[in-house]
Amino acid sequence: MRFDIARRDDGLTYEIRNIVGVANKLSNYGIEVTWENIGDPVQKGEKIPEWMKEGLTDILQEDLSYAYSPTKGIVETREFLADQVNKRGKIKIDSEDIIFFNGLGDAIARTYSSMRSDARIIMPEPTYSTHLLAEVLHASFPPNTYKMDPYNNWCPDIKDLEDKVKKHKTIVGILIINPDNPTGFVYPEEILRKIVKIAREYELFIVCDEIYNNIVYNGEKTVPLSDIIEDVPGISMKGISKEFPWPGSRCGWIEVYNADKDEGFKRFINTILNQKMSEVCSTTLPQLAIPRLIPHPEYEKYLKDRINQYERLSNIAYNIFKDVPYIVVNRTNGAFYMSVVFKDSVLNNGQTLPIEQNDLKQYIEEIVSVKIEPDKRFVYYLLGSTGICVVPLTSFFTSLLGFRITLLEKNEDKFELTIKRIAEKIVEYVESSK
Fold first, then answer.
1. How many C-alpha atoms does 344 have within 13 Å on its Cβ side?
2. Residues 6 or more apart whose Cβ sits within 8 Å of residue 1
3. Which of 75, 80, 265, 434 is the one with CA 20 to 30 A from 287?
4. Where are the beta strands (DSSP E) in 7-74?
């Protein structure tokens, strides 16, 4: 090329999928991989119920399901979703306040890229990779973050948040992921109201990723952003990829609150919409499905059964990990992830796990021979030694060393064995250098 055309990525990787390439090579050595890296319920064995498939089949008989949708999305669906918000009686929106995208990843990318490069979103630490990458790519700098505290059940440090908002004048918005990915923390209403208060005082807007908002358990409760946003500008991000679940639908949307109360925020939303117009529309079929499947008499029971399963797996994992030395673990109460943190100074570069096959051992040792984060080193040794594929916690932009697992395994006995094996390998790995 005439000159280097690639934009600098500063080493950014999407480790949730990046590790798949390494794990796939294990099949060359006859190793069966246990996939705990990605939040796809269908890939982990979730069976889509017949009533849902029949509903989609009926929609496919309609010619309009093959057509473009309006740029903002199917009017019937946006009216249905606006009505869901309005029924709660805390805030009023209409169909024009909702914009559909090709998955929530698309919504995230377009939202961040619609900001000026010197405008920043402060996000939780650790934070979900898609938000992280979108913020870094739009600003070309590492993100501002507020701490989630593993020694306090992953509760966000509100003082840290306010101090950073006060200090960094370029911060224009606050990201909340509720329930949180990767920690599984569920934001109590009291914490959400404190964040809204900060946004109001410092004239910020709120972005709330609520993709898991209806997946809460272990007796915890939360509320949607619409219940507590009041007069503060905000965006709620939602979708059906986790709840139906239908990740392959690539169907997500944003709900915009209080755009009429701030001219700068209104221009920002119009910029997002103008970007959206360039691709004409989002996927039509899943949009048509939303107002027909959610009210279905089987829907609530189906969702409740899945939530109950996540609760059981959350408690299985917590009850095993809590007795393991060298780590800090909190019970997951929402979404379907659990993050485990290694205690300070536990990991070093002299620790290993036994790998039976010499060729595989050489392959893993070659990967870890370069300078990598200590938790990533553990993750690759765990993969080579057991075939269990987890995600290093440092890939979620945090200095905390650890890993994330999913709570999606349908076979509970297999899940329990997997967790026990990870627990054993943690002890074996840490003590290998003693």
1. 2
2. none
3. 265
4. 34-35
Cis, bond preceding 392 (omega within 30 deg of 0) = no
- The top-level CATH class assigned to 64-293 is alpha beta
Alpha helices in 88-228 (DSSP H): 104-113, 129-139, 158-167, 189-201, 225-228
- The strand pairing partners of 35, in sequence order, are 389
- Give the pTM: 0.95
Question: CATH 3.90.1150.10 occupies which residues in the chain?
Answer: 15-46+300-431
Cα gap 261→62, rounded to integer Å: 40
Give the CATH superfamily of 15-46+300-431.
Answer: Aspartate Aminotransferase, domain 1 (3.90.1150.10)
Written as tens digits, the pLDDT of the chain (434 aa) is 676 655 565 555 656 667 888 888 887 888 899 999 888 999 999 999 999 999 999 999 999 999 999 999 999 999 999 999 999 999 999 999 999 999 999 999 999 999 999 999 999 999 999 999 999 999 988 999 999 999 999 999 999 999 999 999 999 999 999 999 999 999 999 999 999 999 999 999 999 999 999 999 999 999 999 999 999 999 999 999 999 999 999 999 999 999 999 999 999 999 999 988 888 789 999 999 999 999 999 999 999 999 999 999 999 999 999 999 999 999 999 999 999 999 999 999 999 999 999 999 999 999 999 889 999 999 999 999 999 999 999 999 999 999 999 999 999 999 999 999 999 999 999 999 86
Residue ranges, comma separated, of all CATH 3.40.640.10 domains in the chain are 64-293
DSSP 26: G
